């Protein structure tokens, strides 16, 4: 495996994803075996956006494998404003062995990866959330087995960065995904184009519909996310009205298969995109997903740093 950066699941091969999952499982099962896997290494977290799961799990994950971790808060001054991205990247590559970015612009992630000689991880951009998507599919392999071919995922809500990563993951792993969105809030056409190209090889099926009940029909898992992602807070009230028919309720879950999982990347707004009765019920695996952010990101860091030498 020659994984150099993690910018998007679209850039991974199915083999690379399976390798990340294998490392994740090993690290989760026997964490002591990896307690010094990153000894002597340093990780920097450059975050423009607030974070609970991404910040804590990367910080803890690096530390638990023996690395040191530095957090740089860029919520006040955006990355590239005080000094150029080029200069930041060329400085940081002299000090650290891994760069994690959480940024409003996917262009910044790509620019860092092009310039820096050390691995770069996209901890979230407006276009892609690969660590979340990999975590979600790893969590499903724990529930139903390693082979996700034919598994039916339903995503209901905004065609955002998390949705994009779920589409890419389904395409790489041969799962089927139906995305249900209000018209005008579709996933990026380029995402669908890239994913459908992979789907021809893996047998995945990718569909976009505009009715939530059609989207959820026969699903093995139902996934949703906040209606107004970071950067779209000013549209919260307008989106609440537009997306109200796409709220995941017990009634909507009845259209899925019996025993279907409910999934959410968190944070969740109970009463908006999902009813409390759904997120807090037995079939919800949202906290398994949250836990696995730690293990999956440890797997990602292990693979990247190991391949970097």
What does this structure look like?
- This protein is α/β, with parallel strands linked by helices and 309 residues long.
- The chain has two domains: 9-129 and 290-308, Aspartate/ornithine carbamoyltransferase (Rossmann fold, 3-Layer(aba) Sandwich); 131-287, 3-Layer(aba) Sandwich (Rossmann fold).
- The chain is 44% helix and 15% strand.
- It has helices spanning 14-29, 53-64, 85-95, 106-115, 130-144, 161-173, 189-202, 212-216, 236-243, 250-253, 276-279, 286-308; strands at residues 42-47, 68-73, 98-102, 120-124, 152-156, 176-180, 205-209, 221-224, 261-264.
- It has a five-stranded parallel β-sheet. A four-stranded parallel β-sheet has the order 2-1-3-4, sandwiched between helices.
- Strand 6 (176-180), helix 7 and strand 7 form a beta-alpha-beta unit.
- Helix 1 packs across helix 12 (286-308), helix 5 packs across helix 12 and helix 6 runs parallel beside helix 7.
- The mean pLDDT is 96.
Low-confidence stretches: none
The averaged pLDDT comes out at 96
Order of helices and strands: HEHEHEHEHEHEHEHEHHEHH
Number of H/I helices = 12
**Rg from C-alpha positions?**
19 Å
Helical fraction:
40-55%
The CA-CA distance between the termini, in Å, is 13 Å
How many domain units?
Answer: 2
Q: Count the beta strands.
A: 9
DSSP strand (E) fraction? 5-15%
Give the CATH architecture of the largest domain: 3-Layer(aba) Sandwich
Going across the biggest sheet, name each strand in turn.
Answer: 7-6-5-8-9
Helix/sheet category: alpha/beta
CATH class of the largest domain: Alpha Beta
**CATH topology annotation of the largest domain:** Rossmann fold
CATH H-level homologous superfamily name of the largest domain: Aspartate/ornithine carbamoyltransferase
Major β-sheet, in short? 5 strands, parallel
- From the spread of the alpha carbons, the general shape counts as globular
């Amino acid at each position: 495996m020659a994984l150099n950066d993690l910018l998007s699941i679209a850039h991974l091969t199915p083999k690379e994803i399976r390798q990340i999952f294998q490392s994740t499982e090993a690290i989760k099962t026997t964490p002591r075996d990896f307690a010094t896997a990153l000894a002597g290494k340093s990780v920097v977290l450059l975050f423009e956006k607030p974070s609970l799961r991404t910040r804590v799990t990367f910080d803890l994950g690096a530390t638990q494998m023996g690395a040191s971790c530095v957090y740089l808060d860029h919520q006040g001054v955006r990355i590239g404003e005080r000094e150029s991205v080029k200069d930041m990247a060329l400085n940081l590559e002299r000090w650290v062995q891994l760069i994690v970015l959480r940024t409003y612009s996917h262009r910044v992630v790509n620019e860092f990866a092009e310039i820096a000689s050390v691995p770069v991880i996209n901890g979230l951009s407006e276009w892609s959330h690969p660590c979340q998507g990999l975590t979600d599919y790893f969590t499903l392999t724990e529930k139903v087995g390693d082979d996700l071919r034919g598994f039916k995922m339903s995503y209901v809500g905004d065609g955002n960065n998390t949705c994009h990563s779920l589409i890419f993951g389904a395409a790489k792993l041969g799962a089927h995904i139906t995305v249900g969105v209000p018209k005008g809030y579709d996933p990026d056409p380029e995402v669908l184009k890239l994913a459908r190209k992979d789907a021809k090889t893996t047998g995945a099926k990718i569909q976009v519909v505009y009715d939530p009940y059609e989207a959820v029909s026969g699903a093995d898992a139902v996934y949703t996310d906040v209606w107004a992602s970071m950067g779209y807070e000013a549209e919260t009230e307008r989106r609440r009205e537009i997306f109200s028919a796409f709220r995941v309720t017990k009634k909507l879950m009845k259209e899925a298969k019996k025993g279907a999982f409910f999934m959410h990347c968190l944070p969740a707004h109970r009463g908006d995109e999902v009813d409390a009765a759904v997120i807090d019920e037995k079939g919800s695996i949202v906290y398994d997903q949250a836990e696995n952010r730690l293990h999956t990101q440890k797997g990602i860091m292990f693979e990247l740093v190991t391949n970097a030498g």
